[in-house]
Amino acid sequence: MNDFSVINKRLPRVDAWSKVTGEARYAADLSMPNMLYAVLLQSPLAHAKILNIDTSAAKKVVGVKDVVTYKEAGTIHYGVSPARYDETMFCYDKVRYVGDEIAAVAAVDFETAMEAVSLIKVDYEELPVYLNIFDAMKEGAVPIHDDYPNNIGAEVHQEFGNVEEALKECDYVRTDKFVNKKQDGGFLEPQACLAYFDMNGNLTLYTSTQTPHYVQRTVSMVLNIPIGKVKVVKPYVGGGFGPKASANTIELAASLLSMRTGRPVKMVMSREQVFMHSRGRHQFYHELTTGVKKDGTIYALKNTCYLDGGAYSSFGIATVYYAGSLLGAPYRLPNMRYDGYRVYTNKPACGAQRGHGGVAARAAWEQQLDIIAEELGIDPIEFRLKNVREKGEVTCNDFNLSSFGMKECLEAIRDRSDWRNKKGKLPKGKGIGVACGFFVSGAGYPIYRSETFHSTAMIKLSEDGGTVELYTAAAEIGQGSDTVLTMIAAEALGVRYEDVKIYSGDTDYGVDLGAYSSRQTLMSGHAVKQAAEDVKKQVLEVLSKRLNVPVEDMDIKDGYIVFKKGQVDFSGIRSYYVKEHRGWAEQPGDDKLTFKEAARIAYIEKGTIVSAGAYKPGELGGKYKGATVGTSPAYGCSAQIVEVTVDMETGKVTVDKMTDAHDCGFAINRTNVEGQMQGSLSMGLGEALFEEVKFDEKGRVANPTFGEYRIPTALDMPNVNTIIIESNEPNGPFGAKEVGEGAIMPTIPAILNAIYDAVGVRINELPVTSERLYNAIKEKERKK
Amino acid sequence: MKRIINLIVNNKAYEIAVLPNRTLTQVLREDLNLLGTKEGCGIGDCGACTVILNGRPVNSCLVLAVQANGCNIQTIEGVADGNNLHPIQEAFVEYGAIQCGFCTPGMVLSAKSLLEKNPKPTEMEIREAISGNLCRCTGYQKIVEAIQAASKKMKKR
């Protein structure tokens, strides 16, 4: 037990009432008087030169207010990483995937805009289409981007220790290949936005985004508007999981159209457009060579990976690093080599998705480790326990594990799942498997090179002292950051949860890099805690003067002033407050001095009480090239046991049970932590068993619907036994670190290892559909 | 040509002129301003637009507004009694069944429809009843727990 009043509890979300009654507003719910609707013209071809664009017929349609192409938009390049700004608002020289944006039409209603857009005539000269990395890398292939003649947009080569030498010293070495499939974010809310450029020259953009700050910078740069004139507001967002973590074309096009027409412009993506825009999980081709000593010591890892990046870089520069840098860390691995290549293809761009860059690598390696453990005759959990790192260790690529409950996670799932009585002892067709996971708790550096703070926060007290207004630009996208930050503010200041009112997701409230890389709790949490502690100090200082009690002899808790050295006569303050607030609600009446009375006195003395907090991690990690990707102020870790049933007749896998332990440092809200774990596992289950974005021979998404791209339903997901491990992270606010993404890491390999335990076959290609598994079982029987 | 239809939505009668190709989702959201009904796919795959139509949960994106002529419809806005949440809503709040909230209105209505017909459902019956409502955030567990708790709560009342 601890003596916290607010945090570490199971409080309802701050937005639960709005959401459960349908009152919560998302971007597509917004409208303004005089609003126009806009739609995009997108390429029907996967790779072609643009010879001519004729918009004259579209412009003539009654009700059309504007038609824009690159001629109006300009060709300022943008993207995620400044080193690879390879996108423009609209295509000008060529189109690079089916869905690439060419023009936008704004009209009085959606139907008119759709009609007009169908009248835009584009002449193309078709180019060879590359739908896989092997074709794209072939000699003589046409470059999709001129700067990258072999279509390799980014490559990484890192070595720590000496892998070739180390492999020679190993008693057992094996190489395996592994491939996953392109996965879609599958968030329920399609992207939507509403832009309004007002008569004073200010642009307000309401948009469904994870990163208002990055959208603000991109819009400002591409449209050439001073950044202070661009306000990005994130209403409620219906999930993001990565693909909403950068600016998209509808945000830019709606802003441009509003600037040109002087009217608000709304754009909403269809579900098919969401699939085409993508920015979801890459396809990774891994080849892993691992060497171990005969006592089970993991000694060397060689990881080669090719990523199918799609038509643009998006987050891919970070992805290609993450696919290597995150892999070895949970284990005491002294020698690690990584060679990564991200290849352009004529498909929708891939980007960041939950467990950014590391999910396929983790699946591949944790399955290989399982094979190795079996070859060595060591129990897979004992094998991992022998190798896992502990708190205070530094990995071979310079990650500082300032807290690390990996061992505790493994022991907890082992004991809670009855592993010892099940592993290898279940009947044929039933299996149990284990795997570990590891992830950053916030990227150590921003996407653009900068000394910027990663998160800022402001607190202002209402004049009666009763309400704490918290302002943050952090992005609540469903993960619960508004709730967690409210709880941190209440705890740090000493008031009740319901006394804090949060305003978030608006670039006018400060700088916050947003909801990606599992950073909001740790980074925004720090900024909020700092602001709250400053307010507390300000109020106590005024009170100290009034009551003649030293600040250090007072505290604030649960909305009351605590006098540590016995009762103090505050009747002067009380009668003054009551006199001033006669007839008001919630008058203080008991024998304790309330925070609001103290805060009122502070206001009378100083004017509005405001405070600011700001956080940046400072210098972290190694000095080698690419050291910034994977470096984080803290690292989360997890372990999972999955039990499956395989139908031997059909190859169908049913996940029966999942036991998951996650070290989140310290759970600010226990319910939310479990929710992140359960949601992560569900996304992992989908990727393991059925999710795959498919393409036809022309490069069109063949399954752009939730009917044909299946995400887990309530019938696919079992209940999860969730175990929260709290290792008290010294670099986190109140000891907290990530849970949002790391929890997905062990799911796929744990399922793969359980399938092996059930039917004795290893699957190296996702998803494990019935067909794939059935064929593998039959193949194994034939070989017998 | 617009047609005149009559709907009872959340116990209130409406007479509306609609084009025959307009879906019930569009009319609820755009004509009646009942924006709690969400559109996640527009083709009946995701369940975010679920409403209760004559006692049955339906994907309102698959119903043309003219087909709903004369029907009794309940949307998420009609579930709470003024400021008092319905027991299902209370349970969703209490059990952490909500994350991004986009599936929540549809989920609540599917759950309500289930509990009206089957006040004591098994876990499997609950999972089947919400299997047409996709949720990417929660992994469904806390939603199932909330519906179980609501079932108990409603029995007591």
Question: Could you write a compact summary of the structure shown?
Answer:
The complex is a heterodimer of chains A (784) and B (157). Chain A has 784 residues and is α+β, with helices and mostly antiparallel strands. Helices cover 29% and strands 22% of the residues of chain A.
Secondary structure layout:
The complex is a heterodimer of chains A (784) and B (157).
Chain A: H1 16-20, E1 36-42, E2 48-54, H2 56-60, E3 64-68, H3 70-73, E4 94-95, E5 101-107, H4 110-117, E6 121-126, H5 133-137, E7 152-160, H6 163-168, E8 172-179, E9 192-197, E10 203-207, H7 212-223, E11 230-233, H8 249-261, E12 265-268, H9 271-277, E13 283-292, E14 298-310, H10 316-325, E15 335-344, H11 359-376, H12 380-387, H13 406-416, H14 419-422, E16 430-440, E17 455-461, E18 468-472, H15 481-493, E19 500-503, H16 520-547, E20 554-557, E21 560-563, H17 571-580, H18 595-606, E22 610-615, E23 635-646, E24 653-663, H19 670-689, E25 720-725, H20 747-759, H21 770-783
Parallel strand pairs in A: 1-12, 10-11, 14-15, 18-19, 24-25
Antiparallel strand pairs in A: 1-5, 2-4, 2-6, 3-5, 7-15, 8-13, 9-10, 9-12, 13-14, 16-23, 17-18, 17-22, 20-21, 23-24
Chain B: E1 3-9, E2 12-18, H1 24-31, E3 50-53, E4 56-59, E5 72-74, H2 87-94, H3 104-117, H4 123-129, H5 141-156
Parallel strand pairs in B: 1-5
Antiparallel strand pairs in B: 1-2, 3-4, 3-5
